[in-house]
Amino acid sequence: RNLYSALRFMLHYRELPAPWVVEFALAAITDDRYATGAERPGGPDSSPTRLSYLAGEDALLTCSLGLLKCREAVPVLLDRVRKSEDARELVSALGLIGDARAGPVLLETLRPLLATPELERESWDQIQHLMEALGGVKCAEAVPLLSEHVRYPEAIVALEYIGDARALPALRRVNED
Hints:
There is one protein chain. The longest helix is centred in the last third of the chain and has 16 residues, at 121-136. The chain is an all-alpha fold. The chain is built from eleven helices and no strands. It has helices at residues 2-13, 19-29, 51-58, 61-67, 74-83, 88-97, 103-115, 121-136, 143-148, 153-162, 168-176. The mean pLDDT is 90. 63% of the residues lie in helices and 0% in strands.
């Protein structure tokens, strides 16, 4: 944890971090080995913690890469989104970076979640992050899907960021209701 905290400090120490610092951060958030002595809170039956969790969510390295708009991180983050069941931090970082390469993967991840009849709390959190990230990357391909779900404020905000006129009819309907 101390190492990851020091790495986060180094990412923000200067305007542009050294390339090796970015590489180290990317290696840390993709390290799926289990940590010892760092079980998640919840008692003795808690599952072991992966180093990637400690680096990405505990030390906020994923968020730091997003705040830095680190385009070098996009391929790694996209790969992690495809493999992860809970990609909220990864998705948020991609939205902060704003790289259009993320749009298709984010959209592909969102579609099946919206297709489920009853949205569970965990799914809903992920849906919110995905909608916000689609707005952040200005994914025009997401306009039809987001327009179908304008009952959610995150879809409206995403459509605003995307700024595509195809969303106007759906937004007008919301305004009329």
